[in-house]
Amino acid sequence: MLDGVIVMDLVRQAAAARQQAYVPYSAFPVGAALRTRSGKTYTGCNIENASFGLTVCAERVAIWKAVSEGETEFEGLAVVTNIAGSPCGACRQVMVEFAPDMPVVIADLSGIDAITSIDLLLPHAFRPEHLQQAASVAELP
């Protein structure tokens, strides 16, 4: 579990990242800050596109940045919106891939609303081991 100082630092960095959001269509800026096991923090903001399906969420931006730098072990993630909005389903699924036990801090600009986990956010998630199980079933005569 993350200590209080780290949690508050993640919330602060997520709030700062939120300022970089590109949200001309929704006007709903989101910031995220991801702490890795190595102690590094990666931030992200949501980036919209006129072709709405190409929009990417702040949480996934932070995760992709970390993974692109060789980091795949995560300790915690903070998400800041103006209404303490929870991560979307796509972001939850990406979080499960890398850190199924990771604490997720949900906050707005006035403070923390909740500290939860991926398991609570996405129960019965599709996990990498399910692909291994499917492959072994496919090999049966």
Give a structural overview.
The chain is built from five helices and five strands, in the order H-E-E-H-E-H-E-E-H-H. With 141 residues, the chain is an alpha+beta fold. The chain has a single domain (4-138), classed as Cytidine Deaminase, domain 2 (3-Layer(aba) Sandwich).
Average pLDDT over all residues: 94
**Widest sheet: strand order?**
2-1-3-4-5
H/E element sequence: HEEHEHEEHH
Q: Would you identify the regions where 5 or more consecutive residues have pLDDT less than 50? A: none
Q: How many structural domains in the coordinates?
A: 1
Count of DSSP E strands? 5
**CATH-defined topology:** Cytidine Deaminase, domain 2
- State the assembly state of the protein chains: single chain
Please count the helical segments.
Answer: 5
The amount of helix comes to 25-40%
Name its key features.
single chain; 141 residues; alpha+beta; Cytidine Deaminase, domain 2; five-stranded mixed beta sheet; 5 helices; 5 strands; 22% strand; globular
